[in-house]
Amino acid sequence: MENIPVTVAGGKALELELLKLKNIERPRIINDIATARAHGDLKENAEYHAAKEEQGFIEGRIQEIESKLSRVQIIDVTKLTQDGRCVFATTITLMNIADKSEVSYQIVGEDEADITQGKISCHSPIAKALIGFEEGDEVTVKAPQGNIIYEILEVQYI
Fold first, then answer.
1. What is the mean pLDDT of the chain?
2. Domains in the chain, start-ordered, CATH in brackets?
3. In whole angstroms, what is the distance from residue 91 CA to residue 106 CA?
């Protein structure tokens, strides 16, 4: 099985979600099922069926997280060789050569990606294009609307 790269924060988030599911959500749904079961006929008991469906979702997510955590490779960006290259977990400030606009992204694992927070998946086209390049380099990213050329202004290991 393949390792799953995550940042330190991403690893902690997975562990916290697992704890919440096991210690809060699982007991709650078990209680909800018992309450719904007490209401009688299970064939026409919408509360019971909804609770059982939610239980299936919760148990599936617990299994998924446990599987990921068994394969996770936590990458602490502060312990990487800080040589100015774009690598997993670095935060990169880019300038679009065409319109001089600037944007910053952190390259993270798939589960951590959230473009609204400036976190992009290491499997995204822009991250794949940036990996291995250094401050001052120009990188061409293949985008749906055509190629975009960025200059790497800064690579941070934070």
1. 94
2. 4-75 (1.10.287.180), 77-156 (3.10.50.30)
3. 4
